[in-house]
Amino acid sequence: MSQPSAFARRIVSSAVLAATLGLSGCFGLAVTGAAIGTVAVLDRRSIGAQTEDETIELRGARVLNESVNKDPMASVSITSFNRRALLTGQVPTEEMRAQAEEIVRTRVPNIKDIYNEVEIKPVEDFAASARDSSLTARVKAGLVRERNVTASAIKVVTERNVVYLMGVVTHEEGQRAAIVASQVSGVSKVVTLFEYVTDAELSRILGTDRPENQKGQGK
Q: CATH assignment of 126-203?
């Protein structure tokens, strides 16, 4: 039985994620242009960083598919948040794992850091990818329900039941998000790859430190 490509796995993951979120009732509204715009505003990255992250993922996927992912025994994916790239997936050798990182580092511009979490293991099948997508959806739903976490500030990636959390958060938010993810049934491990900021830095990012946004406070 042939193994799914990284691209095919992403298609399945997206479909399962959408179905799971829809069934959970967390996102009952249709995704419209206005909704997408709202998500962009709530994102703690700059618009420029969001655009660069999309470009990094597209270019990264292309160069990986042109190289290591040509091997049927390899499947490497790239996720970028605030110009920090996470590599996940499986390859047959340590040499290929290092090759994947080197290709991304040298052929994809504007990356600040690379987290290489690629494993030396057989490629996941579709069933395993679907389980990972279901876990991602349930972790996201848990973050939405958590009052002390801003779910829109966190990106969730799951690979072989291991959950990776990326985002711009305070230490308190990061700790709480990790706890929420670890409590989801089926999650074997939580890896936090957060970019931590202080409360003051977060206020500057959100613009809440501006005088016009402080009217009425302290009354």
A: 3.30.1340.30
